[in-house]
Amino acid sequence: MRWLSFILIMLLITGCQPKDEKSKSVDMYNASGDMLGTITFNEQSGGVNLKVKLEGLAPGFHGIHMHEYAKCEGPDFKSAGNHFNPEGKEHGLMHPEGAHLGDLPNIEADSGGLVDADLMLPEATLLDGKNSLTRGDGTAVIVTEGEDDGMSQPGGNSGERIICGTLTKNEKQEESPTDPTQYNEKQEE
Ligand SMILES: [Zn+2]
């Protein structure tokens, strides 16, 4: 019963918060701090749409994934943690027990190193909830040197992380006093 009332309180809290933006533009940087383009996230009825516009990549396919922490610290961007995986699945769009919620199809850079791709994250949202890309402190989106094979654990054997950007809630100067994750921790008895 305690959990039921907790869920009801959570619904009240999230219901009272102002509506989040349904579109976000994320600047993408390499390990040297050069901005290589932007990814625009749009909330849609079937999930979150990504419009990927990048330059300066090696021609060919590259992996792209949402990661669990909004921290892009070079040179390896390991600060962003693992792939965003709130449902505890295996990695890979072709894995029978996959995929991570943050797994995306590979993007392809043309002979000039340009990427212009349109992708979907069907289970994700920019609004509140377990699958929110902006929940807590947010998430990161990272492009890798190689392509994701869609099957290998934990990251599709896609090589080094080369370009990173952070996706967070609306720019607020202070932390929300009703952060649901903090509340959750205090509930432990
Ligand atoms: Zn994954």
From TrEMBL:
Gene3D superfamilies xref list: Superoxide dismutase, copper/zinc binding domain
Gene Ontology molecular functions: copper ion binding
CDD domains: Cu-Zn_Superoxide_Dismutase (cd00305)
Domain named Superoxide dismutase copper/zinc binding: residues: 37-166
Region (Disordered): 145-189
Superkingdom of origin organism: Bacteria
InterPro entries: SOD-like_Cu/Zn_dom_sf, SOD_Cu/Zn_/chaperone, SOD_Cu_Zn_dom
Any GO BP: superoxide metabolic process
Xref: Pfam families: Sod_Cu (PF00080)
Compositional bias per record (Polar residues), positions renumbered to this chain: 178-189
Cross-referenced PANTHER family: SUPEROXIDE DISMUTASE CU-ZN -RELATED
Family according to the record: Belongs to the Cu-Zn superoxide dismutase family.
Name of this chain's protein: Superoxide dismutase family protein
Species for this entry: Virgibacillus salarius
